Amino acid sequence: MPLLDIRDLTVTVKSDGTETTLVDGISYAIEPGETLALVGESGSGKSLSSLAVMGLLSSALSVTKGQILFQGRDLLGLSAEEIRKIRGRDISMVFQEPMTSLNPVRSIGSQIMESIEENLGLSRREARDRAIRLLTEVGVADADRRLKQYPHHFSGGMRQRVMIAIALAAEPKLIIADEPTTALDVTIQAQILDLMARVCRDHGTALVLITHNLGIVARYADRVNVMYGGRIVESGDARAIYAAPRHPYTEGLLQSVPRLDQDRSVPLRPIRGNPADPFTRISGCRFHPRCPYVAATCRSTVPAYENGVACHFPLDASRKEAV
Amino acid sequence: MFAYMLRRLVGAVLVMLAVSTLVFFMIRLVPGDPIAVMLADAGSEEAREAMIRRLGLDQPLIVQFGKWFWGMLHGDLGASIYGSNQPVSAILMEALPRTMSLAFLSFVIAMIIAVPAGIISATRKNTGADTAVSLFAFLGLSMPDFWLAIMLIIIFAANLQWLPAIGYEPLSAGFWPWLSHLILPSIAIGTGFSAIIARMIRSSMLEVLQADYMRTAASKGLTQRVMLLRHALPNALIPVVTVIGIAFALLISGAVVVENVFAIKGLGRVLIQGIQNRDYPVVQGAVLLVSAFFVLSNLAVDLLYAVIDPRIRYS
What we know:
Oligomer: heterodimer
Number of domains of chain A: 2
Number of helices of chain A: 12
Subcellular location (chain A): Cell inner membrane
Membrane topology (chain A): Peripheral membrane protein
Shape of chain B: globular
CATH superfamily of the largest domain in chain A: P-loop containing nucleotide triphosphate hydrolases
Number of strands of chain A: 10
Low-confidence stretches of chain B: none
Pfam families (chain A): ABC_tran, oligo_HPY
Structural class of chain B: mainly alpha
Family (chain A): Belongs to the ABC transporter superfamily.
Mean pLDDT of chain A: 88
Mean pLDDT of chain B: 84
InterPro entries (chain A): AAA+_ATPase, ABC_Ni/Peptide_Import, ABC_transporter-like_ATP-bd, ABC_transporter-like_CS, Oligopep_ABC_C, P-loop_NTPase
């Protein structure tokens, strides 16, 4: 049984009486201990789908359809109190903004320890010992002393390490990391991702890694879901997708980021146009206005998701040569 | 920290000196003088002049000021020019605990009302509870405190007879006698104060609830109660503390009026009687004390900042 099994999840926002679909019937599953990447531009619905899992969607948003099965239990059917008990204990999150995600007026120690106390029911002293071990594990030196310090004593990278320690506090089965490195210096990004990969491996924790950078995915994820305009447009083994993307959008994403395994003479090719705006109705395939291979069918008919890709004309070697 | 406190204390002393200088001259600009109040039309010309000389009011203003200022620097605030010529410091020392008790209890009552009211109206925004708090705040701000004081006396003292209507008992006479005499005046003063604070907490709380760290707190599976009290409230109180410092002035001016309604011989009553009688030394001493109270409470608030917000360091 998959750890997390999302089926046909649909998230909508209501404003001025009209309902707009932001996440449009996505389905995916993640096995225990696995790392799954959700990749897409901002507004593709990747963060919303994970906030829906945590039951932390803001009040204007609602899940209108679908199921979120966690260990076989549908989280959408749980009461607020039941979902609260799952948060932190079974599923935890690492957020994008380490600078604002920690409470500025409370010490680092208290912010780690309260999760341990709440979710594992340990005493204050045991929680403190565990917090010190966790901080040391995520690479914060002199943890004993740093427990008493406040977030403003920590750099961005260090704060993200603290966030990871908080996420690990209660040994959850799943961590959702929402763009955990986007706000950090490039030199720190790899350190944080290496750290997340290591702790998830050591603790056997499954990881949903949300990112807009397809480049980092191949190295850290087992599988990838590429999202565009609230839908999953391609999914599959991370290496296979990296080597041979089948959706034109995936290809565009790969061509628009620098790759270390490529000849430097190959120019970067950004995807033309802007990310799909959920408030603008687009007929057919939502990617068609930006697609270099667009055909008449793409404008009229929504492509079905089959064999890991939602495209009328999935890319393959022969097709690439023709263009 | 120490250097900061020292600088602030020096500043406080300067403010108090400026205030006392101002008051010295302003009270003498008020029409009428103590002689007219004391002798009315009865006194003869000789009696008048004798009294003026006795009080030193025949000397130039600047000399009078110099004498008073010199005395003040040596801890001598002069004596009341009435009756038994009680020293001003003794009068103030008798009045101070009453006003302090009143201000303290008003503050406690105000916070007991304001904090839950602010939290409830922020977390249940646009519900019946929020509207009720807004209504309370509106009423609390619009009701003059002396009117509220009279209403409280009519209801709780005169009709229900739960609490004494007037007077004051020192704490040494027992906790309940002390408290029972202060409850009604404290409510009268604290209500308007709590209305302001409740509104402040509401708006500041609404902002804090949107913060990223609240989402983090939620992702840890904390209960609503813990999230509100441990994560949101300390952050929401930071801007509120500023207002509390400024609004302390409200408590004092509230005390001046309300002490009169409840016949409590506190600073307010001393001040008003002093002004009515043109009892210059008493007024000067009382104003000096009130300004000290105000300046020190603002200093306390600034120091309190560092306690609730670890990002603030004084140097």
